[in-house]
Amino acid sequence: MRGRVSTAERGLVDARLRAVRPHLVLIVLVGPLLAAGATLLGNPLPYLVIPLVLVLAGAWYFRSRLMRPRRWPVAAAVLGGLAGLHLGAMALWPLSPVTGAALGTAGYFLAVDARRRVLEPYTPELADSRVEVPWQARGDRGLHLLVAHDRITLAGSRGRFRLVRPMVALSGVGAVEQILVARRATLEVPGVGELRVTVTPGPAVRITVPPGQWIVPTDHGREIARLVARRKELAGVEG
Prior knowledge:
Elements: H1 7-40, H2 49-64, H3 72-90, H4 96-119, E1 133-137, E2 140-147, E3 151-156, E4 167-169, E5 176-181, E6 185-189, E7 192-199, E8 202-209, E9 212-217, H5 221-234
Antiparallel strand pairs: 1-2, 2-3, 3-4, 5-8, 6-7, 8-9
């Protein structure tokens, strides 16, 4: 039977998302509005198209990625950086790199705070939402196990993981369990031989996927197992 999500459970996660909407609005509007203000100070009106495009692009992006908080900081940095470059170009050209870096950095940290408010602390209610929950691999800040409402993904910001992200639908996920790794090892990701995960001694999560298994070092194996099980239940996936 398909699992049901209570109104209270949805409400807790919805409250987190509502709380960060002002952050996202600031990210989308402040930089382009400053750039538009600088454009109006004696520059041709057609240049106002650029801030307008940035607002529309930012609004579309954060609306479409609302359930993927992990991606917010990089997008905010790009949006702020572009707005800052335009601001500098319209006001004081030599300061364009400075304004770009300043607004990009401000957007990044504002989005980091918004992401933290949605994802931390991790509570079971997040399993009953559609929010993609990232779990960082222990000892590798660039590698994450992403658990979405319909799939799991290994995503990284270094090496080949920047280009290849193994993904498995929840219907293809088998057993998920916490294990204890005795010694350091570098393991191939099954089916994607050029990808390797370095597993450090300590707790890890083992996930059965076709055509083998993923082993990711983490101290949160039990939470991940419960999260995947709950989302499979909500999706009507057996096993």
